[in-house]
């Protein structure tokens, strides 16, 4: 009976020992993916900012500029691209909408981002654009890959429509989560004017006035290393309208401010990422280590039962091989014959 139980435990130990690395190195890369139908909205603010008045072409101080970023997963387009390429992809249709304190539009820039659902690398399957202009991304945008490494990444910039390194600056604690801090500085660069501007002004009108748009920013992200999702983002953002071919003429500040996530959206994002983090850790750490420990315990129990079974068999064989003692004449028994 002990021998049978030992073999059963040995089989279970082998099963869990094989399952532990299988979960981590086979199932996890295939199961960890960004959902195709995700919808998310984040509100950011720049308090005490500077905005240009396009009516007078003069900068003015405003109490705040509100930037709403909406992200909508296009599941139908993702299925179409998967049928064409055979890859699991995610298609995000995003909108970055900036408004002044009175709610009037400052700019509104739509975007389509197509990327691999598992690695977050761009997939060039057509349809990528920023503000209606086709682009070909190099590097990540919005989200880091699962299992973020302590290194620099290439990050796509919406304004310049180019990619540049975003630098790892160390590990920090943010709202109780251990996160990686990344930073990128985009130097002053001439960038296209948004198609949607205040007062229904067109980009052609601005160009006819002899003005062009320049931009610089220092962006910062606090990224959860498990899920690759940013839990916070900030920017020191500046835009100027410069006079074409007149470098000596003073530029007009179009927008300047420190952009931060609104507190209620920040709390919601931290809570959401913390819950997703537990799901990923379940596949990468909790279950694999639990199964490995369980395999070791079952193997130990199997060996103990096998050792006890062998000792029991050895004792039984030793008992069966012992011969009974026979009495000899003159010792405890009378002789049959009489005296000589």
Structure description:
By secondary structure, the chain is an alpha+beta fold. The chain has four helices and twelve strands. The protein is 31% helix and 38% strand. A twelve-stranded antiparallel β-sheet has the order 6-5-4-3-2-1-12-11-10-9-8-7. The longest helix has 58 residues, at 263-320.
Short structural summary:
By secondary structure, the chain is an alpha+beta fold.
Which terms summarize this structure?
single chain, 340 residues, alpha+beta, twelve-stranded antiparallel sheet, 4 helices, 12 strands, elongated
Strand content: 35-45%
N-C termini distance: 63 Å
Cα gyration radius (Å): 36 Å
Number of strands: 12
Q: Give unreliable regions as ranges.
A: 330-340
Largest sheet: 12 strands, antiparallel
Average pLDDT value? Answer: 89
Q: How many helical elements?
A: 4
Alpha-beta content class? alpha+beta
Classify the helix fraction into a percent range: 25-40%
Succession of helices and strands: HEEHEEEEEEEHEEEH
Morphology call: elongated
Strand order within the widest sheet?
6-5-4-3-2-1-12-11-10-9-8-7
What is the topological layout?
Blueprint: H1 2-31, E1 39-53, E2 58-73, H2 75-85, E3 89-99, E4 105-116, E5 129-130, E6 133-134, E7 153-157, E8 162-174, E9 177-191, H3 203-208, E10 211-223, E11 230-243, E12 252-261, H4 263-320
Antiparallel strand pairs: 1-2, 1-12, 2-3, 3-4, 4-5, 5-6, 7-8, 8-9, 9-10, 10-11, 11-12
Helix pairs in contact: 1-4
């Amino acid at each position: 009976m002990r021998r049978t139980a030992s073999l059963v435990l040995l089989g279970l130990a082998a099963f869990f020992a094989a399952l532990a690395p299988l979960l981590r190195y086979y199932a996890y890369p295939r199961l960890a993916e960004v959902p195709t139908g995700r919808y998310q909205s984040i509100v950011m603010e720049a308090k005490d900012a500077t905005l240009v008045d396009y009516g007078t072409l003069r900068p003015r101080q405003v109490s705040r500029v509100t930037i709403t970023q909406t992200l909508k997963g296009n599941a139908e387009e993702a299925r179409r691209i998967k049928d064409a390429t055979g890859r699991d992809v995610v298609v995000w249709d995003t909108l970055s909408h900036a408004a002044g304190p009175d709610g009037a539009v400052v700019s509104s820039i739509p975007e389509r981002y197509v990327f691999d659902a598992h690695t977050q690398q761009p997939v060039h399957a057509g349809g990528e654009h920023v503000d209606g202009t086709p682009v070909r991304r190099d590097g990540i945008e919005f989200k880091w890959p699962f299992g973020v490494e302590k290194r620099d990444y290439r990050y796509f910039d919406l304004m310049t429509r180019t990619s540049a390194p975003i630098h790892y600056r160390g590990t920090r604690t943010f709202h109780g989560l251990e996160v990686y801090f990344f930073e990128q500085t985009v130097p002053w660069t001439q960038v296209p004017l948004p198609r949607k501007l205040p007062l229904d002004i067109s980009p052609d009108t601005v160009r006819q006035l002899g003005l062009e748009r320049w931009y610089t920013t220092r962006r910062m992200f606090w990224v959860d290393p498990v899920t690759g999702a940013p839990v916070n983002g900030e920017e020191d953002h500046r835009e100027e309208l410069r006079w074409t071919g007149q470098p000596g003429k003073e530029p007009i500040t179009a927008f300047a401010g420190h952009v931060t996530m609104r507190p209620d959206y920040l709390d919601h994002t931290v809570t959401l990422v913390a819950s997703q983090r537990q799901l990923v850790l379940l596949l990468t750490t909790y279950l694999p280590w639990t199964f490995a420990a369980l395999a070791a315990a079952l193997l130990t129990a199997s060996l103990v039962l096998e050792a006890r079974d062998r000792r029991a068999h050895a004792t039984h064989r030793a008992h069966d091989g012992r011969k009974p003692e026979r009495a000899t004449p003159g010792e405890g028994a009378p002789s049959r014959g009489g005296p000589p």
